[in-house]
From TrEMBL:
The entry's keywords: Arsenical resistance, Cell membrane, Membrane, Transmembrane, Transmembrane helix, Transport
Transmembrane segments: 50-68, 88-107, 119-146, 158-176, 183-209, 229-247, 259-281, 293-318
One GO MF term attached to the UniProt entry: antimonite transmembrane transporter activity
Name of the protein in question: Arsenical-resistance protein
Gene3D superfamilies on file: 1.20.1530.20
Intracellular or extracellular location(s): Cell membrane
Membrane topology field: Multi-pass membrane protein
One Gene Ontology cellular component annotation held by this UniProt entry: plasma membrane
Cell membrane listed as a keyword: yes
Chief site of localization: membrane
This protein's record includes keyword Zinc: no
Amino acid sequence: MEDMEHPLFRKDCRDCDFCTGLREENPPEAEKPVVSATALIKSLSFLDRFLALWILLAMIIGVLIGVYQEAGVREVFGGTSGLQGTSTPILIGLLVMMWPVLTKVQYERLPIIFRQRSIWMHIGISIVLNWIIAPCIMLALAWATLPEAALERERKGVILVGIARCIAMVLIWNGLACGDPEYCAILVCVNSILQVVLFSPYAILFVNILGGGSSTELKLDYSHTAASVGIYLGIPLAAGIVTRFTLKRILTDKSFALFLKYFGPLALLGLLYTIVILFAFQGNRIIHNIGSVFRIFVPLVLYFFLVWSSTFFGLYFLNRRKNGANLGGYEKAVVQAFTTGSNNFELAIAVAVASFGTDSPEALAATIGPLVEVPVLLALTYVALWLRTKLVWKPEGPIILA
């Protein structure tokens, strides 16, 4: 019934036959049976359930490869560099990671979703959070924790991570935390479009001007950013759309669901592969610059926790207001939290490497971004699943179409 319009277009109606039938077919979250976080975690696949362990092992393996096979790693990265200095091995890992997730998105529902008023409110909230609040928070944290002139270049690398909005990892975290996949895909696409327009001027403003110091300046143009978004999002998005609609035409619903079940783990394998490559690339530098690395950890850890928690709980309290706008329940709040709390590390690394060099402090700081983001946001997925059962979310009303 979700594709039907309310006959009177009334927000305050709850008792007519239309709304009663809608609630019976789509019970609000608060009326659904309560499932404990432990039960949710136990229901995950073997790969999902022990993902924290696999990520830890991938980090250790990557560091060991980087320390003991540094020459081989440098040869691979130097000989197969892709867009703006980003290596082809990283690019392959990101594409493999995003393809299965984007295949699961129900694109056929998007026309209905775009007719809901709430999606336009979420898009507006996402723009404010991602392009005004989050970059300013990272700028403030970078200056507060790395104020010394000697750490100017590390500070600029951290700031660069803060202005690159996520278009990849958020899909993984949202899926693990049981967020709304369609809303997530919409917000990722919106941020991708804005990234093409805003990343270059933002980078010059935040890094060259607000970042302080007098080191080598960052130089960007729109074509590089547009090409980055086109490669990192456009290719897996096109692959996901083609895969979904092609297989749905030739397979039964049961067979397609079975395909997704076995195709889905490929995303997490892509994530683990990418982590190994990243740690191998910077493993030796991490070991020999451990002091700077821990200094860089501080603003990044604070950023991910602060931005994620403020977004999640902010939407929760808005959800609980009696007279406030109904912005949806847990599934919508967790989408916004991970969209705002994640960063486009592939673009940040590519720009840092191209502008400052592979061995630069800026590139080291940009590379440490995902090394911090992955374990922190993985931990926050478990926090989100726990809060899903501990917090009481205001039931969603009937679907209101614009």
